[in-house]
Amino acid sequence: MIAFLTGRVAGRGGGSAVIDVGGVGMTVLCTPATLARLRVGETATVATSLVVREDSLTLYGFADADERDVFERLQTASGVGPRLALAMLAVHTPEALRKAVAAEDTAALTAVPGIGRKGAQRIVLELRDKLGEPVGAADGPAGAAPQAPAHWRPQVVAGLTGLGWSARDAEAAADAVAPQAGEEPDVAALLRAALRTLSRA
């Protein structure tokens, strides 16, 4: 298992980043919030999970080990593969997912594209004893640094289009969450708010 990568961020976009580790470019699929924290040209460390398939080896990257662990546990539920697990973490923090499962909040789970009512009920049933008890606030990923006001909007739009939304829908969602930005906007929180806006539309 590859538990983490540390290296220079060589590029990012389209839902993935390329990290130069000792001269080898490793492509890592990430949530929009994780991508927003990576800066091209800077050194970064991402927790990783390697998904092995018959015809592929895919690395998924996360802000921290807790997010990676939740990603792996989500896949123990029937019908939840790595792509859907990543989408769940794009919409909700690990703590928010713990709270949703513990409270049997299927409405929160159906806010994730690709999860219907029955799927949400199955996830609650199968993961109730696997994600652990919620312990803290679910406002954003642990350790997320505030982003400069000039940068939040293009990062939110890029994150949404990377998840498959059209540029027009992404721009509209960014407009909708703009009042929440404040002086020191948290890109991760704004991304999740924009995703909730699109899911309700």
Provide a concise account of the structure shown.
Helices cover 42% and strands 20% of the residues. It is α+β, with helices and mostly antiparallel strands. It is globular, with a radius of gyration of 16 Å.
Rg of Cα set: 16 Å
Provide the helix percentage. 40-55%
Q: How many helical stretches? A: 9
Assign the structural class, choosing from mainly alpha, mainly beta, alpha/beta, alpha+beta, or little secondary structure. Answer: alpha+beta
Largest sheet: 5 strands, mixed, barrel
Mean pLDDT: 84
Order of helices and strands: EEEHEEHHHHHHHH
Second rung of CATH, namely the architecture of the largest domain: Orthogonal Bundle
Shape: globular
Provide the β-strand percentage band.
15-25%
CATH C-level class of the largest domain is Mainly Alpha
| Name of the CATH homologous superfamily of the largest domain | 5' to 3' exonuclease, C-terminal subdomain
Secondary structure: number of strands: 5
Low-confidence stretches: 137-150
Give the termini separation.
40 Å
Strand order in space, largest sheet:
1-2-3-5-4
Q: What's the number of domains?
A: 3
At the third CATH level, what is the topology name of the largest domain? DNA polymerase, domain 1
Protein name: Holliday junction branch migration complex subunit RuvA
Subcellular location: Cytoplasm
Domain Helix-hairpin-helix DNA-binding motif class: 72-91, 107-126
Organism: Nocardiopsis composta
